[in-house]
Amino acid sequence: MSDINVVPYIDVMLVLLVIFMITTPLLTQGVKVELPRASAQLLPPDAREPLVVTVDQQGRYYLNVGDHPGRPVDVDTLVTHVAAVLKFRPGTKVMVRADEHVAYGTVVRVMTLLQGAGVPSV
């Protein structure tokens, strides 16, 4: 007499058991939350873009304003441009970006120059 092979049925049941064990915790963790709505006001156009001074690996300075933002500038031009921007837009944020291989002293020198140009915080 031939017996019924139940091994495939056991395999299917084990797969279903694993699927239920995985999906059950995911279903109970969902919580319905209604978030409050807020009306956001647009920033003024000049407050969106900060003044960025970049120092590359060779220690050259770049400024994101002026006639040619991709060209290096010397120290005097950097200080003059920053002072002019702060004169016309007093609340302008100033950020310093530096290559990871630039010496820390070079970055501190740039920050000192910016403070001398009238930047309250860098």
Strand-and-helix sequence, N→C?
Answer: HHEEEHEH
Question: Under the CATH scheme, which architecture of the domain at 45-116 would be assigned?
Answer: 2-Layer Sandwich
> What is the mean predicted local confidence, pLDDT?
81
What percentage of amino acids are in beta strands? 5-15%
CATH structural fold name of the domain at 45-116 = Nucleotidyltransferase, domain 5
CATH class of the domain at 45-116: Alpha Beta
Silhouette: elongated
What does the main sheet amount to? 4 strands, mixed
What strand order characterises the main sheet? Answer: 3-2-1-4
Low-confidence stretches: none
Instruction: Please count the beta strands (DSSP E, at least 2 residues each).
Output: 4
Which structural class should the secondary elements be placed in? alpha+beta
Please tally the helical runs, counting DSSP H or I stretches of 4 or more residues.
4
- The separation of the N and C termini measures 89 Å
What is the helix fraction of residues, given as a range?
A: 40-55%
Rg, Å, rounded: 31 Å
Could you give the topology of this structure?
Elements: H1 7-28, H2 45-48, E1 51-55, E2 61-63, E3 72-73, H3 75-88, E4 94-98, H4 104-116
Parallel strand pairs: 1-4
Antiparallel strand pairs: 1-2, 2-3
Structure description:
This protein has 122 residues and is an alpha+beta fold. It has a domain at 45-116: Nucleotidyltransferase, domain 5, CATH 3.30.420.270. Helices cover 43% and strands 12% of the residues. It has four helices and four strands, in the order ααβββαβα. It has helices at residues 7-28, 45-48, 75-88, 104-116; strands spanning 51-55, 61-63, 72-73, 94-98. Strands 3-2-1-4 form a four-stranded mixed beta sheet. The N and C termini lie far apart (89 Å). The model has no long low-confidence stretch (mean pLDDT 81).
